[in-house]
Amino acid sequence: MGFRDDFLWGGAVAANQIEGAWDTDGKGMSVADVAMYKANVDVKDYQNQVKITTENIQKAIADKTVADYPKRRGIDFYHHYKEDIALFAEMGFKAFRLSIAWTRLFPNGDEAKPNQAGIDFYKDVIATLKQYQIEPIITLSHYEMPLNLSLKLNGWVSRDVIDYFVKFSRVCFESFSDVKYWLTFNEIDSVTRHPFTSAGIIPDQSKHLEQDEYQALHHQFVASSMVTKLCHELIPDSQVGCMLTKLTDYPNTCAPEDVLASFNKNTMNYFCADVQVKGVYPPLILNFFERNHIQITMTNEDLAIIKANPVDFISFSYYMSLVSASDETNLELTSGNTVVGGKNPYLETTEWGWSVDPVGLRISLLELYDRYQKPLMIVENGMGAQDTLNADGTINDQYRIDYFQAHLSEMKKAVEMGVDLMGYTSWGPIDLVSAGTSQMSKRYGFIYVDEDDAGNGTLKRYRKDSFYWYQKVISENGANL
Length: 481
Prior knowledge:
This protein is α/β, with parallel strands linked by helices. It contains 16 helices and 14 strands.
């Protein structure tokens, strides 16, 4: 028994990390356009890498260059998408996950009518994918909300943003009605880890930041349910998924206190999927709010909408696992995907300190499927590494092949154990600007892009050794991992 015949092999990106053209054809500024490359901050110091203040934002708005703001330039997918999609097709992609930049359609987020140039761009991207029989998987919100809504309303803290987002989503569904697979919010649980990036919350403008984070999260739950309903109405055969950061956590020891600490971490990690899949707030979460004096404004209508419109499938990112202890005084900490946690002594780490745990992917798949019994899709998995472009244009990245081979092998074992897995899209199939550190030198792709952290380079694309390896995996539908 192996992968289903219609398994969706492919890759995943976000608009703000690849498109560039940040002020082209009417596009407005998003929260990603003020993310700085901080060369003097340790890449493992996640909190300071993503730290943002009102002063930082105003400085970024005044600076019209791309020098310190790499997400403004990306890899210029905006002008290279036909070339890039042709390379994805050469690898044999069945699917490509991308996001729609809200500010290409509504530059400020609150306009009466959308920007037609933005619609036309994505129509052509989707048409190009369809030309190669590549299924688009579209994320509606992937860390790129309009900066105007952040400054004017403190982002998703305001209930008004729900209506703006539903309007944006309606335009997407009506304009791109030939797209079957949709995701609402990327790593929706990340609101409490990087509130500005994920929800447009400016920390120094919040009197009670933790409460604002959970209020914003509630508004995203409501919006997700509303657009799930809308998508089903406008595109009858569509499927809508939630997207979770799978932060698998182990107890540091078998001491009951450590097991409890790990249980608490995993419970909070599952919270967002619980709401979007089961349609209700878990009792333990409601108790958490009460114990921590967090008062969320939620109406009976909100709860009814959430209950009536669960997602069709669960998608998630998986990069690493961490460990927890009741007393972290002597626990060695390491970085991970939008989080810092305990380092597992049994695992190797990447150059950026992320633990490499292929078996953890199998555990994650089994846990998710056992908990929800809905189809799953892995929409992010990969390893950031420094690559060397050889004089002959080759890139020998056996380390990346080893990483993927180990993870895909464990993924296959989970399928053989009964997990209903729809697809796998690696992060990212082509080098892009990293989400947390805004680096190009932290490379994920099967395709090398000639651009450095300062934006220097030809932007020429090169196939890495892993390109040909993944091409073979797809052609064999993962039969010989």
